[in-house]
Amino acid sequence: MNKGFIKFNLSHVLFNDLRRHEQIFLGIDYKKILEDLSKKGPTWTLIYDGQPVSFFGGFYLWDGVMEIWQIPTIHVAKCPKFYSKMIKFFVDKYFELFHLHRMQSTCLDDALHNRWMRFLGFKKEGILKKYNWNKADYCIFAKVR
User: Fold this and answer.
1) Please, are residues 41 and 66 in contact by the beta-carbon 8 Å criterion?
2) What pTM does this model have?
């Protein structure tokens, strides 16, 4: 497939394709982390020109509520409009496909991530102080229907 979503497979993931932030965040166990995430719920790879642009998935917290996650690659820079359109489409499709009334996600508390989540239609619900291993602040965003 040249472009679109395909079922996630660990063979899609190369460490050098991950952006610097994701390399630091995921570390050397990046394949194990992605494998574990893919076992928790539906997981996809977004492809453009045969290259993985992003890995995207979610897992149920309980009936009707899903935590979603996304890991972009360096190839996202080649197709920002395609990438944005496809992720937004898929977020909206998740509500229908998985009978959700709430979708939520955590992300780094910075201008880029805050703008991205608002673009996807999420609302900021709070700040998670010193959330990860390096004590960075994160935010929790939700989209409710």
Assistant:
1) yes
2) 0.86
Are 117 and 86 spatial neighbours (Cβ–Cβ below 8 Å)?
no
Please list the pLDDT of the chain residue by residue as tens digits (145 residues). 688 999 999 888 887 788 877 887 777 788 888 899 999 999 999 999 999 999 999 999 999 999 999 999 999 999 999 999 999 998 999 999 999 999 999 999 999 999 999 999 999 999 999 998 788 899 999 999 9
Domain span at 60: 3-144
Split into its structural domains, the chain has a count of: 1
- CATH code for the domain of 50: 3.40.630.30
Q: What are the start-end ranges of the E strands in the chain?
A: 3-7, 43-48, 51-62, 65-72, 102-108, 123-128, 138-144
